[in-house]
Write a structure and sequence with these properties.
Outer membrane efflux proteins (OEP); four-stranded antiparallel β-sheet; 4 strands; 69% helix; 9% strand
Length: 451
């Protein structure tokens, strides 16, 4: 059997089916999606020059007090876990390229000799089945590559969401420390005055104890506020990839953004689920991939190994010529006819379909719930701003007038000051809750990262 025509045919098919690596590794599609949904830049630095450029960009952002957008931008550029997710693109693309290449041929040699007599067999075989199934395999890996791209986009969105929420929590905690320090100062003043009043014989021990308890509570509240602020700040710096401690100090914005004049109208949930939810798009790709895997499993149900190639045999002396022929190797489906593999593929496909259907139900519910939380948080914060805060200021002004007229004591004035500061801190927490609820709502429209 002449092996050259077979080799030429397989080489030609290999060249036709073989595809090389792309210049961007599939990253450009991810970067475009990130810019579309977040209006942020995304970089995958793979050279020293590119890494230097990213570091300069991060340092420039850190040179000024950070807002939420700047914190998200730093995280997208600097978080190493996200960079590790980008490497998954390279892994998947390698599988895609490999799926378009035939397995190497196999050469078998059997050699035996005795008394000048030889028994030699040489066989070169090719995996012909892979040639027939290459189209299926490549199509599956192409879909798998698209799945990985969508999954990486979801990781980008998840990091942006986590960073934005961590920023709002850190700034609010920073503000809380300021307010709790004011409460502590007022309580300390009251405690000192009570000591002087008792020493002068103008007060009893019961009232003094009350002021001292207020002071102790204020000290503890300040300590808890500082601890919470430190934890919130550390979480934010971790998400931004700034945990090394040798870079520029992180300066947060002094205050949270003000409440907007109004909020978005209720979304078209069906349109959001069908068009915008990236997690559902990823699940649809996975269902499609399993459908193609099921076709491949059915196509190779009875024969999943098929090798063929030329062989030659010499039996006799060295002067005897070779006898040529061919070798064929395949599995005989006696004990395993492939039914179990087909059944498993069918079950996996049905499982994916059911999970996709439930995920669509969950997505609708998540959007409704997130919008409800978003609206409720806005209403609560706006009421505190427009109703409670002005009333507290009015009460404080009246109490100051009453104190100047000697109608109330200094301790009552201090107690009112404490309540006013605590009310201001409550408003800050409500603003924080609003911005976090808005972040959750925006995330619900786009989809969440699968667990």
């Amino acid at each position: 059997m002449n092996v050259r025509p077979l080799l030429a045919m397989l080489a030609a098919l290999e060249l036709v089916g073989c595809a090389g690596f792309s210049t961007d590794g599939g990253f450009d599609a991810v970067a475009e999606a990130a810019h579309k949904h977040l209006a942020k830049d995304l970089e995958w630095p793979r050279t020293d020059d590119e890494q230097t450029k990213v570091r300069k960009h991060v340092d420039a952002l850190l040179a000024l007090p950070l807002g939420a957008d700047e914190a998200v931008q730093i995280a997208l550029l600097n978080n190493r876990s996200l960079q590790a997710d980008f490497e998954q693109l390279g892994i998947s693309e390698a599988d895609l390229v490999q799926s378009g290449r035939l397995p190497n041929p196999r050469f078998d040699l059997r050699h035996a000799a005795a008394g000048g007599q030889y028994d030699i067999e040489e066989t070169l075989t090719f995996n012909i089945l892979s040639l027939f199934t290459m189209g299926y395999a490549r199509d599956i890996e192409r879909r798998r590559f698209a799945e990985v791209q969508n999954a990486v986009v979801l990781q980008v969105l998840q990091l942006a969401k986590d960073t934005r929420e961590a920023f709002f929590a850190a700034v609010a905690a920073q503000d809380s420390v300021t307010y709790m320090a004011q409460v502590n100062a007022v309580a300390e003043t009251g405690a000192r005055l009570s000591d002087k009043m008792v020493a002068a014989g103008n007060w009893n021990r019961l009232d003094q104890s009350r002021e001292q308890i207020f002071h102790i509570d204020a000290v503890q509240s300040l300590a808890r506020a500082r601890l919470q602020a430190d934890g919130a700040r550390e979480k934010l710096t971790r998400l931004m990839g700034l945990g090394g401690g040798d870079g520029p100090a992180v300066q947060l914005a002094a205050h949270l953004p003000e409440l907007p004049a109004g909020i978005d109208n209720p979304p078209d949930i069906e349109a959001a689920v069908l068009q915008n939810r990236l997690d559902l798009r990823l699940m649809r790709l996975q269902v499609d991939e399993l459908a193609h895997r099921l076709k491949l499993t059915k196509a190779t149900r009875f024969i999943n190994v098929l090798d063929v190639g030329p062989t030659r045999v010499r039996q006799g002396t060295r002067e005897d010529s070779y006898i040529t022929g061919y070798a064929l190797s395949f599995e005989v489906p006696i004990f395993d006819s492939g039914g179990a593999r087909v059944k498993k593929s069918e079950a996996l496909y049905a499982q994916a379909v059911d999970r996709f259907a439930q995920a669509a139900v969950d997505a609708r519910s998540e959007i409704r719930q997130a919008y409800g939380n978003y609206r409720a948080a806005f209403d609560l914060a706006r009421r505190l701003r427009d109703e409670a805060t002005p009333l507290q200021k009015a009460v404080a002004q009246q109490n100051l007038l009453r104190y100047n007229a000697s109608l109330i004591s200094v301790f009552e004035l201090l107690a009112d000051a404490r309540e006013q500061v605590l009310g201001a801190d409550q408003y800050i927490q409500s603003v924080r809750d609003f911005w976090i609820a808005k972040t959750e709502f925006d995330s619900a429209l786009l989809g969440s990262t699968p667990l």
